[in-house]
Amino acid sequence: MAVRYGSLPFDDGIKFFRQKLNTPSTSWDDVWQNAHNRAFMVAGVTKADMLNDFYTVVDKAISEGKSLGWFQNEFNNIKSRYGWEHNGEPAWRSQLIYETNIRQAYNAGREGQIQALKASRPYALYKHGDSETPRVLHLKWNNLVLPVDDPWWDTHSPQNGWGCKCKKFSLSERELKRRGLTVGTAPDEGNYTWTNKKTGEEFELPRGIDPGFDYTPKNTAQLTSQAKKQVADKPPLTKRVADYQASRIVPSAYSTAKNVTALKLDPLLAQLDSEVLNGLNSFVTAKQTKTLFVKSNEMSAGSKENAAIRSDVGESLGVDDFYARMQYATRSPKRVGGFTSVGFEHVVVKVKASQNLAKVDMQAVQDTAALTVRLAANNAGKYSFKHNGQTLKRDHTISDTLNALDKNEAHAVVATWLHELGHQVHYYAGAPAFLKNALPVTYYGAANKYEEFAEAFTAWALARKELKKWQPELVSWIDQLVKDAAKSQSKQR
Predict the structure, then answer these.
(1) What is the DSSP string of 185-213?
(2) CB atoms within 10 A of CB 364
(3) Interatomic CA distance for residues 206 and 225, integer angstroms
């Protein structure tokens, strides 16, 4: 007897599962998103015959209504037969495989029916399941009604994560009224960035959706063809890692602002001069410098906001909670734009929830940085001070000038990130004194050798040509220090 869900025959679900291609994999994320519609995989199973055995027992579970206990017994028989060592306890791992495949098969069958009946049943209802540990957002979406074709369903149709038991139902106009429900608007919970720790690849996902579940299970020939191509074209993991890392300047970032992420910063940096890009890439690739984008109130060590992100920061940096709290806290969060330390392998940049790197005009950022350098070269900045017996006039910092002129606070985020990265370059290069006879680029840059280099480094990155016109020796010196820093195995302060 075929598996049934209430009064719904599971024939469509059986068909959905049986058209899947056996896909050997080293990890669950080797096949991504929609490709799961056509790929059957068990994470860590690379042998074709072993994978086929798993396929057979999953098919039996779906088509014949086999119990979880039966499946767990078969799971243990297969892993013993092949001597397979897997992650996680056997009972947990087998239950995960069993429930995920059965639920997604059902959901795919249900989705096909919803689409076929949408002329008479034009609305879709989100119903929370009875998970032991319910997700807050899934509970919030309970009884949400949207049109069947609302784009929100493309990423939020259940199942929405490991162990998620939420369901999607279609409704007619009459059923909508009978239940006392109304058509709502698609929630916008923002996004978060998930990093594949094996490859370094980053993906932006809707909050409330586990990685790999932001798609709608479907049953079409087009998807079959698409999945076959994805599987066939997928390069080896080692090449994926190499290609991805080689193309990125910002390898990873933890952020509490949904629109300030490594994914959004990286294409901005990609617009810099090729000489700068090569230098940045060589250093960051060698050191894998991480980034924390956090808000001002999260920088205060004793605040509840600081404590709330401690575990996530620790996971991002690979440290425990106790040590994590020292990695993003400062005594004067209102006064800083960012900070780092010789003991850090990361930089901290202060952000606001309202900032959006997608709205940054990188050309405007570079033009303003070039203006700051030009004013410094003409000794025409806002602040006057003595330096080695000379009276100099400089703007305060490149970030401040961006804030004042560009009227887009996200612009300063780019400069601040470069400034803090400059400190890490300086430490790895041995923290030398500023180049003899070179002049500071900004007022803040004259404070000490560390800020002098960091501000010059920011100018080098954003306005290299303008800085070279004024102080060519300084540009050549920074070029060399970036190379030295990339090769260095130690730091100095």
Answers:
(1) ------EEEEE-TTT--EEEEETT--TT-
(2) 15
(3) 27
Dihedral sign for Cα 90, 92, 95, 100, please: negative
Strands 21-22 and 39-40, by their bridges, are parallel
Q: Say how far apart CA 93 and CA 83 lie, in whole Å.
A: 16
Q: CB neighbours of 81 closer than 8 A, spacing ≥ 6?
A: 53
Terminal Cα-to-Cα distance of the chain (whole angstroms): 72
- Residue 190 — left, alpha, or beta (φ > 0 → left; ψ -120 to 50 → alpha)? left
Cα gap 460→479, rounded to integer Å: 9
Distance CA 461, CA 339 (A): 18
> 159: cis peptide before it, omega within 30°?
yes
> And the tokens for 126?
């989100």
pTM: 0.57
Q: What is the pLDDT along the chain (493 residues), one digit of tens a residue?
A: 343 333 333 444 444 444 444 333 333 343 334 434 333 444 443 445 545 556 566 566 555 666 667 766 776 776 666 565 545 555 555 555 555 555 555 566 677 778 888 999 999 999 987 666 678 899 899 999 999 999 999 889 887 776 778 888 889 999 999 999 999 999 988 888 877 655 556 778 889 888 767 766 554 444 444 445 544 555 555 555 555 555 567 877 899 998 898 888 988 998 899 899 889 989 998 998 999 999 999 999 889 999 999 988 988 888 888 888 889 999 888 889 999 999 999 999 999 999 999 899 999 999 999 999 999 999 999 999 999 999 999 999 999 999 888 777 899 999 999 999 999 999 999 999 999 999 999 999 999 999 999 999 999 999 999 999 999 999 999 999 999 999 999 999 9
Sequence letter at residue 15: K
* Nearest by Cα to 169 from 130, 142, 205, 203: 142
Q: Which letter, b or e, does each residue of 421-436 get, where b requires 16 or more Cβ atoms within 10 Å of its Cβ?
A: bbbbbbbbbeeeebbe
Q: 477 with 438: CB under 8 angstroms?
A: yes
Count the Cβ atoms, other than its own, within 10 Å of residue 294. 24
CA-wise closest residue to 90 among 71, 74, 76, 70? 76
